[in-house]
Amino acid sequence: MLSLKNLSKSYKNNVALKNVSLNISEGICFGLIGPNGAGKSTLIKIIASVIQDYSGNVQFTNNKIQIGYVPQEIALEETLSARDNLHFFGRLYGLKGAVLQKRTEEVLSEIGLTERGKEKVKTFSGGMKRRLNIGCAIIHQPRFIIMDEPTVGIDPQSRRYIFNMIEKFKSNGFTIIYASHYMEEIEQLCEEAAFMDHGKVVENGSIEHLLKKHAVPSIYVKGRMCVPDDLSQTCSKGKDGGYLITANNPLAAMERMIHFCNENSGEIERLELVKPKLEDVFFSLTGSQLRD
Ligand SMILES: Nc1ncnc2c1ncn2[C@@H]1O[C@H](COP(=O)(O)OP(=O)(O)OP(=O)(O)O)[C@@H](O)[C@H]1O
């Protein structure tokens, strides 16, 4: 367990974190979500010990736990090869000799760069750099991996590759903290998440709990028909000329639509349940006002 208690951090007059407390269980992927400037990177840097002048307490149950930190900005030496970058980071973590050689080859294979190991990083695509950035963070085999927006600016293939790596980390019992703006990534990868805004945790819990508490399901209906008065209050225009109706009991709303249509000789072309999304939770908790 990682326990964060009353973490606060200011950059001169700018308050980045205000009394953040969280418990993060081991063996899960924990998502950090929030608009620009919410404080996610600051929190991550405190956990990774990159920032040390803060108030509050960071406590790991296992004091000897090793951390791998994947920073938001790619931190590689462009003029060196992938292999030499891995060597460099491995040596920083105290690896040497045959162990360092073995780990370097293992990591190159894990990040799909064995064939390109000799090439200079400056010739790499965004996806290759992101994968190598992760490789440098796991060279010392940490069981706790912190990733700050690791899929920014990459193609779907590299993203899929990184997701598969994360699934493998999870099946090996590793703990991952994953910050992202991409809500569908958090939904797909994480068991639990915290929403941050203006330096505070505004909500946290399991993804299921967050969706249940903050997002209302909807139904989508399209056809030659009207919407009954009792559903029209929560009805808005959907795509392709259909209607989106939010309803706490979507199955009852679907039944109501079918009956109403039958009674009024309408015709339904499409009727679907629209599952609530984490994005709905995000806007419900943080609003839609721009942050810059
Ligand atoms: N080195 C710094 N000096 C001054 N202010 C900073 C510094 N780093 C962050 N801040 C400020 O602290 C606040 C929190 O920033 P932080 O980078 O932690 O947020 P974030 O949620 O990670 O944002 P983003 O999604 O844009 O990466 C912001 O107001 C930011 O401008």
Automatic annotation (TrEMBL):
Residues 2-223 form the ABC transporter domain. GO terms for molecular function: ATP binding; ATP hydrolysis activity. Keywords: ATP-binding, Nucleotide-binding. InterPro entries: AAA+_ATPase, ABC_transporter-like_ATP-bd, ABC_transporter-like_CS, P-loop_NTPase. It comes from the Bacteria. It holds the Pfam family ABC_tran. SUPFAM superfamilies: P-loop containing nucleoside triphosphate hydrolases. This is ABC transporter ATP-binding protein. It comes from Gracilibacillus oryzae. The lineage of its organism: Bacteria, Bacillati, Bacillota, Bacilli, Bacillales.
